[in-house]
Design brief:
EmrE-like, EamA_dom, transmembrane, transmembrane helix
C-alpha cells in the first residue's frame, strides 16, 4: 500500500470513529464549558496513554520534535474544539457540521498561500460540488438557527484548517503529541468558566467513552493524515462527519433534518466518494493536491 493510500485510509477510519461526537454532545445537553472541562481532560489522558503505548520511552523526544509548529497545532486544536462544542450547543449538530465542511476550502487557501501547493482539478471540482451541497443545507429554514453558533462553527472550521496546514508543513514529524497540551488548554478553560456538569451515570459513561477512548483514537489517526496527504484532502474526508453526524442525531435523538439538509448531505457524500476513489488510484505527489 502506498503512503498516500495509507493516509487516506487512516484519516477515513479516524473520521468514522469521530462521527458519533455530535450525537454525544447533543445527548448530554449540558453547559458547553462544563462539558469542555471534562472532555478536554479525558481526551488528554486517553491520547497520552495511546502515545505512551506507541512511543514508550521515545515520547519526550517525539514531543520535542513538534517544536513551535506543535504549539501552533495545540492552539488551533484547543480553540477549534472550544468553537465546536459551543456551536453544537447553540446551533445544533447539522448546522455546525455543515459549516465545518468548509474547512477544506480554508485549508486549500492556506496551503496555497503558505506552502505553495497547487490544487488538482478533481480536488477543485470536489470542493465546488461540496460547496453546492453546503449552500443547500444553509438555505434550509429549520428552527433553531443561531448566528452566534454559526460564528463559533466558522471559527472552528478555520482553526481546524490551520491545524492541518501546520501539520502538512512538516510531513516527517508526527504532530499527535501536540494535541495533548491543546486538550489540557480546553480543559483548563472549561474548569475556569464552567465546572462540573450535572450528568446521570449513563451520561458520564458516554462522555468518558467518547472523550477518553474514541476522540483520542480518532484525532491521532486524523493528525497522521497530513503527513501523507494534503490538509485539503483531510478536510474533504472530514466531510464524512458532516453526513454521518446529523444522521446519528436523527436516528437516536429524533432531531430531524429537513429535506434540503438530506439532499445537500447526499451531494457532499457522493462528491467525497468520487474524489476519494480517484485519489486512491493516484500516486504520491507534492506538486498538487
Amino acid at each position: 500500500m502506498q503512503e498516500r493510500q495509507k493516509g487516506l485510509l487512516l484519516t477515513a477510519i479516524g473520521v468514522l470513529v469521530l462521527s458519533p461526537d455530535a450525537l454525544v454532545l447533543r445527548w448530554l445537553n449540558a453547559d458547553a464549558m462544563q462539558v469542555l472541562a471534562w472532555r478536554g481532560l479525558l481526551m488528554a489522558i486517553g491520547l497520552g496513554l495511546l502515545l505512551v503505548w506507541r512511543y514508550r520511552s521515545e515520547l519526550p523526544a517525539a514531543a520535542r520534535r513538534c517544536g513551535w509548529t506543535g504549539i501552533g497545532c495545540a492552539l488551533c486544536y484547543g480553540i477549534s474544539t472550544l468553537g465546536f462544542v459551543q456551536a453544537i450547543s447553540l446551533a445544533g449538530a447539522a448546522n455546525t457540521l455543515l459549516i465545518l465542511s468548509i474547512a477544506p476550502l480554508i485549508a486549500a487557501a492556506l496551503a496555497w498561500c503558505f506552502l505553495g501547493e497547487r490544487l488538482a482539478l478533481r480536488t477543485l471540482l470536489a470542493i465546488l460540488i461540496c460547496l453546492g451541497g453546503v449552500l443547500l443545507i444553509v438555505a434550509d429554514r429549520s428552527p433553531g438557527n443561531s448566528l452566534a453558533g454559526n460564528a463559533w462553527a466558522l471559527a472552528s472550521a478555520t482553526l481546524l484548517a490551520g491545524n492541518f496546514t501546520l501539520a502538512r508543513s512538516r510531513p516527517r514529524v508526527d504532530m499527535s503529541p501536540s494535541l495533548v497540551p491543546g486538550a489540557l488548554l480546553v480543559s483548563l478553560l472549561g474548569f475556569a468558566f464552567g465546572g462540573t456538569p450535572a450528568l446521570s451515570a449513563p451520561q458520564w459513561a458516554g462522555l468518558a467513552f467518547m472523550a477518553g477512548v474514541l476522540l483520542p483514537l480518532a484525532f491521532m489517526l486524523i493528525q497522521l493524515g497530513p503527513r501523507r496527504i494534503s490538509g485539503t484532502e483531510v478536510g474533504l474526508l472530514l466531510l464524512l462527519e458532516v453526513v454521518l453526524g446529523p444522521l446519528w442525531v436523527w436516528w437516536l435523538l429524533d432531531e430531524v433534518p429537513g429535506d434540503q439538509v438530506l439532499l445537500g448531505g447526499a451531494i457532499i457524500f457522493l462528491a467525497l466518494l468520487g474524489h476519494s476513489l480517484l485519489s486512491w488510484r493516484r500516486g504520491p505527489s507534492s506538486a498538487s493536491v
